[in-house]
Amino acid sequence: MLLDDKCAVIYGAGGAIGGAVARAFAREGAKVFLAGRTPSRLEAVAADIVAAGGLAEATALNALDAPAVERHADGVARKADGIDIALNAIGVAHVQGTPFADLSLEDYEFPIATYTRTNFITAKAVARHMAKKGSGVILTLSTPGARLPGPGYMGNCVASASIEAMSRHLAGELGAQGIRVVCIRPHAIPEAAAAGSHTRAVFKPMADRAGVSIEQMLAGATGDTLLKRLPTLDEVANTAVFLASGYAGAITGTVANLSCGFLVD
Length: 265
Hints:
Layout: E1 7-11, H1 16-27, E2 31-36, H2 39-51, E3 55-60, H3 66-80, E4 85-88, H4 105-133, E5 136-141, H5 154-174, E6 179-186, H6 198-210, H7 214-221, H8 233-244, E7 254-258
Parallel strand pairs: 1-2, 1-4, 2-3, 4-5, 5-6, 6-7
Helix pairs in contact: 1-2, 1-8, 3-4, 4-5
């Protein structure tokens, strides 16, 4: 198995992407520590993993609370003799699709402050333990918004671009300690837009303004990709497994483009 005996921490593990990656990590032999705000969702992911023969532990945690994240990481490291892999997959509903002239300062600032804060906090918490082992992988998530000129995505654009810049810088900061940092940039994932998800909350105002359903909006987005489709959760999760494994040992400081050709690097 690609991640046999590895310890992986997934922040936002109750969400669509976090849960999919957690299940994939466990399938490949990692012991996964699930962290997030909603215990019921975490327990559902943990139950799936255990039922499939994997190892998982769930903890309710606010990944914006630095002291709490530090304590959690310390506890994980004690139990597992270190931390090998971490993914920050938390998601927050934020305004998208609003033209610059109508965008409030608060709505612009919210995703930038939230996503940069949580990625800083979680990366710092796990990096201390990875450095002790002289190895580790930190995975982050962004969106194609990092490269879009607009209109209507100012907050998302700057937040995503900030995460990608932070990932590159962290790779430079931590590389000499054996720690790799890679950002994963998937396009919109139809499976992630389930009822009650933050993704659906983000997409709904845009779909409403266009007078279509979220499903119709996503179906229309396929025409803008080279592959004429959008990525799946399995593709994102399997990419995360590869990037966290020894097969990707020479990959750091870059962005894995899972946009199905919406963006071309």
